[in-house]
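Email to the structure team, subject: ABC transmembrane type-1 domain-containing protein model.

Hi all, the expression group asked for a predicted structure before they design truncation constructs. Nothing fancy, just the tokens so they can compare against earlier work. One-line instruction: predict ABC transmembrane type-1 domain-containing protein, return tokens.
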Amino acid sequence: MKRILGRVAFNLFAWTIVLVTAFPLVWMVITSVKPQFELFRIPPTFWPEQITFEHYARLLWETPFLLYMRNSLLLSTATTLLVVTVATLGAHSLVRFRYRGRERLAQLVLFTYLLPSVVLILPLYLMMVWIGVANSLLSLVIAYTTFALPYALWLLRSFMQGIPDDLENAALVDGATRMGAFFDVILPQALPGIISTSLFTFILSWNEYLYALVLVNTDEARPLTTGVMNMLISAFNIEWSLLMAASVMMSIPLIVIFAFLQKFLTRGFGAGGVKG
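Reply from the structure team: attached below.
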């Protein structure tokens, strides 16, 4: 009986936390389909008297939202591909090869991740101006790589440490080249870790705000995080209906990706606990 009561109490506590956490998201979705006159009604109403999608129509056809969406997709995809490619090769090097300073290099990578990202803004901005890529998506790809790569490298290093050396050695004995063994043996075994790392990197790039705010000030290169705020918020007014609709639209790609890849994300968390 005591065990049953404990389980019931735990479930009630867990569901309370879930409801408290999910309530802002539910309110965001409901607000995005409320008519304008219901938004500031006192007392406020939870369910709309009538559902309307006029805010979504205005967002898509009367604002540059689709341009910002395209920029965010290009930026997050390019950053993810670059970071995961470099991190996969780097992690394999740190795990499989023996050379002087290997462990110190791994520690320096982790130390780089621990640094506050705001410290790098000014040096990165000056570097972007110097190489002539300021105010462009390329500048954001480079900037996002600086703080996403150390974490991705450390996570994949931990994951690859769990892959037995015997698998790669057996492939080498059978006549495979080093790169052949890497592509045929290591990559399939590391695929869950690579996918979870890709998901982490994509979410990090999709939601990043500070670098995008400082490094880009033209609409042609703005991602969603800064573009939506610049588009809908003025000094004296916030268009809450459009802001909620934009927030829902911004969340959809992440929800879809997470729904399909969540099992790999869980494996990636487990891989991060492997000690080297």
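Residues 65-96 form the longest helix (32 residues). Confidence is low (pLDDT under 50) at residues 268-276. Ping us if the truncation boundaries need rechecking.
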